[in-house]
Design brief:
The complex is a heterodimer of chains A (about 425) and B (about 475). Chain A has 13 helices and 18 strands. Chain A has about 425 residues and is an alpha/beta fold. Chain A has two domains: about 60 residues, Roll (Urease, subunit C, domain 1); about 300 residues, TIM Barrel (Alpha-Beta Barrel), CATH 3.20.20.140. Classes of the chains: A alpha/beta (about 425), B alpha/beta (about 475).
Chain lengths: ~425, ~475
């Protein structure tokens, strides 16, 4: 029996002895850990064979081939195993929904078009059964985002461990999410079917954009007024407006806007709008992204692609349209990340990235699209996205490439805490494996 | 969720506009052309995943006409002169993937929702060969499907086993001689839990799982009476009497054919209790359930399903989209398989049907099936569920030449399909697809240019004309 087998067997029995009947949340301890003899993939630098990673008090303290293991550290033998940074989902509803068809358990979309003051972290359920299920494939961090109306609200970057929303939240507001109005006339490729329907659709479309524009103009004025009053009491007091207040950091360029737009026309309209208000913009969804690459390049706009394992909108789209966009962006040098845009199956994030690699994206770029790229795009690369000294110890230990389905995540650490890998699903599995 | 999946098209879903697609579809259709004479194709030097006889490294598959004529290590398979040789070195060959739960190729709504039992209607009557999803599934290595009605009523209608013979008339899509099948549905959908009729419309019966059971029970009870009426009629005729024949009833004929074992029941279900309900009812009424579909809580009553002799076609991932899917676990496949249930992974989705190989791989991750067991989940096991394992589902001599060439192992997320064959005909080829895109782009550019040129010429002529007149 190899050392690896012994280690894994021990881990299994430890799991079955202590992990039954309850799904543990984060244990609340951040002791020193050292994983040695493993292949370490820092993502931002070359893989290290027979390497060691050390983390303590929640932060990575050493990564390399020749690393001294501090006294008192719990040593994990990583022989035959690989170590990666925790994977990051750039857009999902994990923690906001439990059972899609039961409205009482779903908090993803608020009523009305303009809800910039809806905040994802407010509705985040730290004890959702979806969270441990998502962790099993190595996802430690998620951009949890609302999706209703036009200005849907702000997202939060959350770690998938913690007893309260605050314990989970790394950054909020992370970004303002706008599902840009779409012109839909109902016909194939949105060609009008009849004149009346076309007129109506265009009217509503224009109205919707006008409303958005008015809101942003108001927000600019509000920000100006707020800035003027700051520290100058001679400026007349005005009543607070929570909607405009939520947009203040957005019009000031301090919080980015994630523009959700899928088809070429919508993408162009969304980017034009963002330009008009000088917003710091991230493009998301963007099925037709390959048609707007020059614009993205010249304006330095990053992209969040996904879901990748999905059907193209149009029947005359190439069958592989969604699989090949990542390579097109990679070749053009446009930064991109990948989202699952899911909740219950956000756990499949790595396979969305892998599908891009099956169609030409280099494998290491696919890995980056769910680790360091989202960290950079969302301005949190100083804390997550790679295995580097000083970063949060979001670390996964696997028996292979995490983008391969057949790979198992063996250990998972979030903020240096040793997070168990059992879930509602493993509990049911265990229960019914033992049916007498 | 933007990509929230609703695996059953319980409400009348309309396929997207097909009207303006004719030229595109026609272009794709033209790719496969007509039938050729006796084609002989040798796929050389591939890793062949036979499914039934293990893996052959550096192997050759010889296709003759529509059948597999030989398979084995390169040295053992003689390639006849004149054969088309495909060099598949470094590539993998997998039997065509079989999807036992599809709604692809249905023209219009999948639900004839007007009655609790619409067993008399048939998918075969509304198949279309213009659904581009069929082509896209070939691009994912899927070649055969059971096309079913929706789940809006306890008995939805008669299903159809088809092959995605892209480019062929739809009359050639149904698999000749395949078993007749019918769709049953249990649980939230047939009791209309997740959708309500428009205001003012009465609720539709049934509204409970009790009602679902009653609909099915009454249908078979009526069918027994119907059969008895005909038996009495035949008996009287034999005695030389001249009785009036009973009135023919197409629904009762269908139900009677289930009882006679002429139609296989494929039943949509979720919860363990409703699975048990149908098993008990089937035993009492004297019919068999061939395959439990979805069967997300199959793992809770796996041994009962196995004892009944039914298969289980399930999802790996989909859970939590409704209450009855909350206990769905990805380990379902492994638990059912180990209990002796013939288990498959199926799609219920135009999208998932493109990568059922990945769901098979997930059964290795969740529950530890072996590679061989995993491959069976999307090939020979669904073939067995459809009673077509003598024709499809493995790379064996004499079987239909339905297979795909993959760039790598089909259980790897990094692999994709290069070419797909149905009955010996290459119905998808990536290089051909890429070339076709170029051709279409060129044709579009040429036409636009011609239009612009014509327009310019017209203007020029119009400007010239007065001068010409002056010359005269």
């Amino acid at each position: 029996m190899s050392r690896r087998t012994i280690a894994l067997t021990c881990a299994f029995f430890a799991g079955s002895l202590f992990g039954q009947s309850v799904i543990m949340n984060s244990p609340g301890r951040k002791p020193a850990f050292a994983i040695r003899n493993a292949t370490i993939y820092p993502v931002t630098s070359a893989p290290i064979a027979n390497g060691t990673i050390v983390f303590d008090k929640g932060v990575i303290t050493a990564v390399g081939a020749n690393v001294a293991i501090p006294a008192g550290a719990t040593v994990i033998d990583g022989t035959g195993l690989s170590v990666y940074p925790g994977l990051i989902d750039s857009g999902a509803q994990v923690g906001l929904t439990e059972i899609s068809s039961v409205p009482g358990s779903v908090d993803t979309a608020e009523l009305g078009d303009i809800n910039p003051n809806a905040r994802a972290e407010v509705a985040l359920n730290p004890h959702s059964n979806v969270i441990p299920v998502t962790r099993v494939n190595g996802i430690t961090t998620v951009v949890v985002e609302p999706e209703g109306g036009v200005v849907s609200g702000s997202s939060a970057l959350v770690n998938l461990a913690g007893w309260t929303p605050a314990e989970m939240t790394l950054k909020a507001p992370l970004a303002m999410h706008i599902h840009f109005p779409r012109l839909r006339t109902g016909g194939f490729d949105d060609q009008p079917q009849d004149e009346e329907a076309e007129k109506e659709a265009k009217k509503n479309y224009t109205k919707s954009i006008d409303k958005l524009r008015d809101t942003f103009r108001d927000a600019q004025a509000y920000a100006k007024a707020a800035a003027a009053r700051k520290g100058d009491t001679t400026v007349k007091r005005f009543d607070r407006d929570l909607v405009l207040e939520a947009l203040q950091p957005v019009v000031e360029g301090r919080v980015p806007v994630v523009m959700h737009a899928n088809l070429e026309r919508d993408i162009r309209a969304a980017l034009k709008f963002a330009g008009e208000f000088k917003l710091k913009v991230i493009l998301a969804d963007a099925e037709d992204v390959a048609r707007v690459i020059p614009d993205l390049k010249s304006r330095g706009i990053p992209v969040i692609l996904g879901p990748i394992l999905a059907l193209p909108t149009h029947e005359d789209d190439p069958y592989d349209l969604l699989f090949t966009n990542a390579k097109a962006l990679y070749d053009a040098g446009v930064p991109f990340a990948i989202q699952s845009a899911d909740a219950h199956n956000a756990r499949n994030l790595p396979y969305h990235a892998a599908a891009c690699a099956a169609f030409g994206l280099p494998k290491d770029a696919a890995l980056k699209s769910i680790t360091i790229n989202p960290a950079q795009i969302f301005g949190v690369a100083d804390r997550v996205g790679s295995l580097e000294v000083g970063k949060l110890a979001n670390v996964i230990v696997t028996d292979g490439d995490p983008l391969e389905i057949v790979t198992h995540v063996k250990r998972l650490f979030i903020g240096g805490e040793d997070i168990p890998l059992d879930s509602y699903h493993t509990l049911l599995y265990e229960k019914f494996s033992k049916r007498p | 969720m933007r990509n929230a999946r609703h695996p059953e098209r319980s409400e009348g879903s309309q396929p997207r506009g097909r009207r303006i697609l004719r030229c595109f579809v026609a272009a794709l259709l033209s790719m496969t052309g007509g039938a050729i004479a006796e084609n002989v194709i040798a796929i050389r030097d591939a890793t062949i995943l036979t499914v039934t006889n293990g893996k052959i490294e550096h192997g050759t598959v010889l296709i003759r006409g529509s059948k597999i004529a030989a398979v084995g290590p390169n040295a053992s398979v003689a390639v006849p002169a004149g054969a088309q040789v495909i060099d598949a070195a470094g590539k993998f060959v997998l039997p065509g993937i079989i999807d036992t739960h599809s709604h692809t190729g249905v023209d219009g709504s999948v639900n004839e929702i007007s009655l609790p039992n619409t067993g008399m209607v048939r998918i075969a009557d509304v198949l279309t060969n213009e659904d581009v999803s069929a082509y896209r599934q070939l691009a994912g290595g899927t070649t055969t499907a059971l096309v079913l009605h929706g789940s809006a009523n306890p008995i939805g209608g008669q299903s159809q086993i088809v092959k995605w013979k892209w480019g062929h008339p739809v009359s050639e899509w149904p698999v000749a001689g395949a078993p007749r099948t019918i769709k049953f549905a249990l649980g939230e959908n047939p009791k209309s839990s997740n959708f309500r009729p428009p205001p003012g419309t009465p609720l539709q019966y049934p509204q409970t799982r009790m009602g679902v059971e009653e609909v099915i029970r009454k249908s078979f009870t009526d069918a027994r009476d119907y059969m008895a009426r005909w038996d009495e009629y035949e008996a009287r005729r034999k005695r030389g009497e001249t009785p009036l024949p009973p009135r023919r009833d197409l629904l009762m004929e269908t139900m009677a054919d289930i009882l006679r074992g002429n139609i296989d029941v494929h039943s949509h279900c979720y919860r363990a209790d409703e699975i048990m309900m149908l098993i008990n009812l089937a035993n009492e009424m004297g019919f068999k359930v061939r395959e439990f579909q979805h069967v997300l809580e199959g793992y809770k009553v796996a041994r009962e399903i196995a004892a009944h002799g039914a298969g289980g076609g399930t999802f790996i991932d989909w859970w939590g989209y409704k209450l009855e899917a909350y206990d769905a676990i990805p380990y379902n496949v492994a638990l059912m398989e180990r209990a002796g249930v013939v288990t498959s992974v199926n799609s219920d989705s135009d999208e998932l049907a493109r990568h059922l190989n990945q769901d098979a791989a997930k059964a290795m991750k969740y529950g530890g099936l072996t590679e061989d067991e995993a491959l069976k989940l999307c090939t020979i096991n669904p073939a067995r569920q459809l009673r077509l394992d003598h024709r499809i589902g493995s790379i064996d001599v004499g079987k239909d030449a339905d297979l795909a060439i993959w760039t790598g192992h089909p259980l790897s997320t990094y692999s994709r399909v290069e070419s797909t064959f149905v009955e010996g005909e290459m119905v998808f080829d990536r290089q051909r697809d890429l070339q076709l895109r170029k051709d279409l782009a060129k044709e579009k550019a040429d036409r636009l240019k011609k239009e612009a040129d014509d327009e310019a010429k017209k203007k020029k002529d119009a400007a010239k004309k007065p001068e010409e007149k002056k010359d005269e």
